[in-house]
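for the recovery benchmark. tokens below, seq after
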């Protein structure tokens, strides 16, 4: 049977982030993708100009009907927007016993627009992170979740440990926002801290990288990979997607999930 993955996130009509980017990523990895939409956004490569959130009960209904009928091998969360949606999503995940869960704690768009209401942060920490098989914040999101600075590699190691202490089974703190050197992410599984580095690519076209990284991890988990194996493959995938980014629009263009297919064709990585 084909692996099945569910994204619970907001819609990006420009196609670079959110559920659109997640579904592209699932497809590239030959995983059957499904979605529960939490919010509609009006956005493009220049920024977010409008947001309409979905009523929490209807978000829950979307998850319920998919899980009860098609089934879910792994799921990820992205933009959840409000406290009510977070609580509804957490309840649904528990009810359907979806344990292969990737929590991407989306708080702001790349342009700075807020995608999570101020009163929702505590709910994210208290109700959703303890359900996560892996949580994948960037350094800015890790700072907000932990109320502590995350500005160096040492801070990232401390943050990854703190997120596991907060209930997540594993954590990946992404270092792309730190200046200079390679792009290094820090992974902690409760026992061992590991680092994943890749050359920093000089491009403004990085829209959606957080979404597609977490979606790639979700695809791996749905296919039965262990967490570390899924993270390693996802890191290679997002590096390829940034290297092959698309100069679309007049702002920050999207990373390109389809670049992974070219990597596969030359036999550089396993599918």
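predicted aa per position
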């Amino acid at each position: 049977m084909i692996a099945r993955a569910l994204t619970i996130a907001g819609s990006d009509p420009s196609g670079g982030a959110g559920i659109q980017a997640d579904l592209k990523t699932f497809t590239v990895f030959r995983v059957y993708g499904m979605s529960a939409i939490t919010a509609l956004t009006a956005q493009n490569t220049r920024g977010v100009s409008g947001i309409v959130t979905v009523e929490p009960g209807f978000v829950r209904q979307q998850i319920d009907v998919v899980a009860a009928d098609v089934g879910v091998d792994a799921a990820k969360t992205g933009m959840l927007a409000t406290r009510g949606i977070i609580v509804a999503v957490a309840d649904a995940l528990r009810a359907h016993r979806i344990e292969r869960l990737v929590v991407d704690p989306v708080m702001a768009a790349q342009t700075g627009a807020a995608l999570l209401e101020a009163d929702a942060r505590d709910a994210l920490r208290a109700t959703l992170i303890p359900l996560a098989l892996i949580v994948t914040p960037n350094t800015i999101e890790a700072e907000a979740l932990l109320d502590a600075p995350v500005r160096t590699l040492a801070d990232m190691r401390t943050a990854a440990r703190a997120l596991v202490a907060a209930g997540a089974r594993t954590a990946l703190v992404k270092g792309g926002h730190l200046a200079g050197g390679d792009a290094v992410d820090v992974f902690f599984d409760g026992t061992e801290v590991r680092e994943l580095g890749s050359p920093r690519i000089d491009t403004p076209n990085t829209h959606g990288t957080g979404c597609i990284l977490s979606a790639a991890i979700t695809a791996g988990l749905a296919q039965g990979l262990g967490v570390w194996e899924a993270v390693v493959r996802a890191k290679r995938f997002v590096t390829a997607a940034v290297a092959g980014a698309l100069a679309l629009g007049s702002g920050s263009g999207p990373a390109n999930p389809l670049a992974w297919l070219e990597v596969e064709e030359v036999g550089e990585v396993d599918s």
